[in-house]
Design brief:
Layout: H1 2-15, E1 19-29, E2 32-39, E3 51-56, E4 59-64, E5 74-79, H2 87-90, E6 98-101, E7 117-123, H3 128-139, E8 146-153, H4 162-171, E9 176-182, E10 196-197, H5 200-210, E11 218-224, H6 226-237, E12 242-247
Parallel strand pairs: 7-8, 7-11, 8-9, 9-10, 11-12
Antiparallel strand pairs: 1-2, 1-6, 2-5, 3-4, 3-6
The structure holds flavin-adenine dinucleotide (FAD).
Flavin-adenine dinucleotide is lined by residues 51, 61-64, 76-79, 81, 83-87, 107, 125, 128, 246, 248-250.
Length: 251
């Protein structure tokens, strides 16, 4: 009885919410997809780095927005959690299906302009807010800040945004330095990998030195895997670096 009542209460909570329609879906691996959602009949305003709240069958979860505000659709990079409540339902979605969407974006994981050097650590889907921030900054033609983006994943096909970010870094070298890193270089799935290796928490201190960052003018951001965040935070805050983070789940 309890579960029936819970499900009913959830349905009631989202029944009157606006909907967003799935307009594009690209599956990168069995458990990673990028979807584009079109809010139906209203304008969804957000700042780069914020998240939206999407739902199916009354089950709602937070999703960072990878697109920038000037883009027509909300782009979301989603990881399947096989035992999860919502993501297995999202994996069943086809083009044209809709999800509930809370009308207001949330979150304070934004670009902080009190620094001009921004070292960003993102694991797998945790790269999403940084993609939005970088796309928006470049779109607006802003200058005077530099993003150093370290993107980490176990396997090269989980990086997903690496082609875009490498291209942006090549075209806007004064704004973006991009380093993708793979943590399991010896596995067959990574045989083609020639880039950086190691978990972000194990390489962050090296890159702080390599990038020659100025501590008074740098903010370090971390997003995604809570273990990477906790470990990186301990390492860099112990030596005085300013820090901000967004955890996607609790361990
Ligand atoms: C601010 C914020 C932004 C987020 N942005 C994104 C995003 O851009 N993309 C995205 O895919 N997810 C994002 N998440 C996570 C998302 O909200 C859901 O938690 C996730 O999709 C799992 O939902 P679920 O209902 O399938 O699993 P649940 O039923 O909620 O979770 C089942 C269990 O899995 C754990 N878990 C949740 N996510 C993961 C994961 N990725 N890997 C391993 N264990 C996990 C939970 O802690 C829980 O113990 C974000 C979370 C927050 C708080």
């Amino acid at each position: 009885m309890t579960s029936v009542r819970t499900a009913t209460a959830r349905r009631d909570r989202t029944a009157n919410l606006p909907r967003a329609r799935l307009v594009e879906r690209v599956d990168y691996t069995d458990d990673l997809m990028v979807i584009k959602m079109e809010p139906q009949g209203f304008e969804f305003n957000f700042k780069p780095g914020q998240y939206c709240t999407l739902g199916l069958d009354g089950i709602e979860r937070a999703y960072s927005i990878a697109s920038a505000p000037h883009e027509p659709f909300l782009e979301i990079f989603v990881e399947l959690v096989p035992d999860g409540e919502l993501t297995p339902r999202m994996w069943q979605m086809d083009i044209g299906d809709t999800m509930s969407i809370r009308p207001r974006a949330k979150g304070i994981f934004l670009m902080d302009r009190t620094a001009t050097q921004h070292l960003m650590l993102g694991t797998v889907t945790g790269v999403a807010p940084f993609v939005s921030i970088v796309r928006d900054f470049i779109h607006r033609g802003h200058t005077g800040h530099h993003f150093y983006l370290l993107e980490g994943a176990s396997y090269l096909d989980e990086l997903v945004y690496d082609t875009e970010l490498a291209s942006t870094a090549a075209q806007h070298s004064e704004t973006l330095t991009f380093v993708p890193a793979i943590s399991r270089p010896t596995e067959e799935r990574n045989a083609a990998w020639t880039g950086a290796t190691g978990r972000l928490n194990n390489i962050v201190a090296d890159y702080v030195k390599k990038f020659d960052l100025n501590q008074d003018d740098t903010l370090i951001y971390a997003c995604g895997h809570p273990g990477m965040i906790e470990s990186s935070r301990e390492i860099v805050t112990a030596t005085g670096w300013r820090w901000t983070e967004e955890r996607f789940w609790k361990e």
